[in-house]
Amino acid sequence: MTFQVYDTTLRDGAQREGLSYSVADKLAVARLLDEFGVGFIEGGWPGAVPKDTEFFRRARTELELRHAVLVAFGATRRAGRQVDDDPQVRSLLAAETPAVTLVAKADLRHVQRALRTSADENLAMVHDTVTHLVAQGRRVFVDGEHFFDGYRDDPGFTSSVVEAALAAGAERFVLCDTNGGMLPSQVTAVIVDLTARLGVSAEQLGIHTQDDTACAVANTIAAVEAGVRHVQGTANGYGERPGNADLFAVVANLQLKLGLPVLPEGCLEQMVRVSRGIAELATIVPDDHQAYVGAAAFAHKAGLHASAIKVDPLFYNHIDPQLVGNRMRILVTEMAGRASIELKSRELGLELADHPETLDRVAKRVKELEAEGWSFEAADASFELLVRSELPDAAPPRPFTLESYRILVEHREDGAVVSEATVKVRVRGERVIATAEGNGPVNALDEALRTGLVMHYPELRDFELADYKVGILAGSHGTGAVTRVLVETSDRAGRDWTTVGVHPNVVEASWDALVDALTYGLDQARGGRSGFNRPAGDEAR
Fold first, then answer.
1. Which of 272, 266, 540 has the alpha carbon at shortest distance from 400?
2. pLDDT tens digits for 125-182?
3. Which residues, other chains included, contact 106 with Cβ-Cβ below 8 Å and sequence gap of 6+?
4. How far is it, in rounded angstroms, from Cα 417 to Cα 414?
5. pLDDT for the residue numbered 332
6. Can you count the helices (H) and strands (E) in the chain?
7. Residue 529, number of CB atoms within 10 A of its CB
8. Among 140, 190, 431, 524, which residue has the fewest nearby CB atoms (within 10 Å)?
9. What is the dihedral of CA 339, 342, 348, 350, to 10 degrees?
10. What's the pLDDT tens digit per position in 112-128?
11. In sequence order, what are the beta bridge partners of 300?
């Protein structure tokens, strides 16, 4: 039986607190999921949610899927109502999707106390709705809501719901850990017991898990190892409460660890791109430490690790990161040894293996600066400038020499607070004075510096300060604390780079980071060539 990867990001994942997709967003997410190669995309609940009804209407003409089947989600008919007279069932058919997923109560306590109906009527609701939809040419999946809790309380009734759905023609019955309270061994035990009780194959079952015990992915894998061949999850684990099973981790584990070819050829390496694209549409900052797709998933900090990675990257990577579209990163910190410095420099295009003395100097300098509070872990551009300053003919000189800078902060009568900065620099033998206002001292300083330099370096018009972070270093307190500033800069070519500055004065720390940012950016804009055609005698700051 074919393995099925079923995504429910647009329905279950959208229940995450603070997340709200527009119809256009939902269409864009669906396209990304299709590029990732999932087999089914659950688009939402037509008839119950107006936005979802609109999504299915637009999907008919705007959504061209190469790999996935679009699925509409809804409930079984209401108690005491004929299936062909149920407006919600009619809405499912009106969505015109090839497949439909029905949610059905699989816990007798919910049937009696939430639906206020009988066990027999609940079974009839399942049977009638599945039969009706199958007769209309739809593929039908049934999600057994609260399945595991119901099975623990009354396995006979819960089993009868599974039996009714499969007998009526459901393609899969999905076991839902709705409250997210299961553990992997419990999932396995229930599946073994259920299949023996009903005499059905586990391949006719599916698994849908929540992450309340932080076991959603593990529970999903346990179900597959018990024979289930239909898995549900959401992109990045989005969902209500702690979330759902992270579909990316599930798929990577199935394909790379269990050897199950669950995605079409060439789709697995799209994982990081799709993960980050969906995060952007959801306006959620990606989790750097997310398994497989996080920026730190294959990042190495300890010098011991780097020494082994130098011999073989798989000594400290459980897979080749490129298999999922990620990359290995070496972090440079006070924990770094020569191997870390060498590998990180190589990652940045600088080969230090043939320069052992330079390698020793850089390693020593990094440790000294780290002891003072500097951190190059997230500031590759500043680290590259440091390395290049120690390499013969590789250092890009500073594009100007600082004479002085001054900043004023004015609190005006109308309550507005404005900062004004003046910088005095020497550029190519010329003394330049520039003044600018900003909404803060660092913004004003950045604007003044660019104003003074742009006539000599027109590339600066393409630069934008994308992010600015200030941290107080451990062990320093109060208004006299030492601060660390990280500046992220981007340009119109799509490049971005991060630089760092450290000083007891936050403005001076910011200045150091800004100077590195402009120096690195200008060098990259000119093809990474050293020098800025400066006349002799115009020394870097």
1. 540
2. 999 999 999 999 999 999 999 999 999 999 999 999 999 999 999 999 999 999 999 9
3. 144, 145, 146, 147, 150, 151, 158, 161, 162, 176
4. 9
5. 63
6. 17, 16
7. 11
8. 431
9. -170
10. 999 999 999 999 999 99
11. 330
